[in-house]
Amino acid sequence: MATTLRHRAHDQSLLRLMKISDTNGMATRCSGCDQPFMPGKVDDLYSCLDCRFFLHRCCALLSQSQLPPLQSNSALHTHVLQPLYAPAYNSGSFQCSICWKTGRGFNYHCHSCSFDAHFLCGLMPQTLSSQAHQHSLQLLPPPPPPPPSVGSAICDICRRQIDHFRYRCGDCNFDAHPG
Predict the structure, then answer these.
(1) Which of 80, 31, 25 is nearest to 54 (CA)?
(2) What is the rounded CA–CA span in Å between residue 56 and residue 44?
(3) What distance in Å separates the CA atoms of residue 143 and residue 145, rounded to the nearest whole number?
(4) In this model, does residue 174 exceed pLDDT 90?
(5) To which H or E segment does residue 59 belong?
(6) What is the pTM of this model?
């Protein structure tokens, strides 16, 4: 395994392979997938300590090759989504159109309508099986606002309101947050 690598998302200098403990607490989130580092579970990362740029080893290696665009998909989005190594906005962040959380790392972006998705949200499967339900669940876009007398869609696992994309079983009207 290479101890240094040049990455398209950070062309200022080479990234060095190191242990999370070698960053003196500076490495808290991956600059790629925007997920936290989990000391003890995955200890290796690629980093530039000067810039405070850190990547999980798998994010660094996965994105070394050119990431392919996500083809249009009726459940996720109707246009082709282009991969970006940084948000398309001057603010340096974006709001994910799938989970509604703020993102700062690798993402998928639609230049036509400003649809944005975290790298991992963009790769969510269209259909999945869950231990929480006996049938397959289909990824669906956000539900339309309900009439006041009906109420919002509720997750059948955590019992909280669903305001964004969801997985649904049409046979049973079972809804679940993607997470």
Answers:
(1) 31
(2) 7
(3) 6
(4) yes
(5) helix 57-62
(6) 0.76
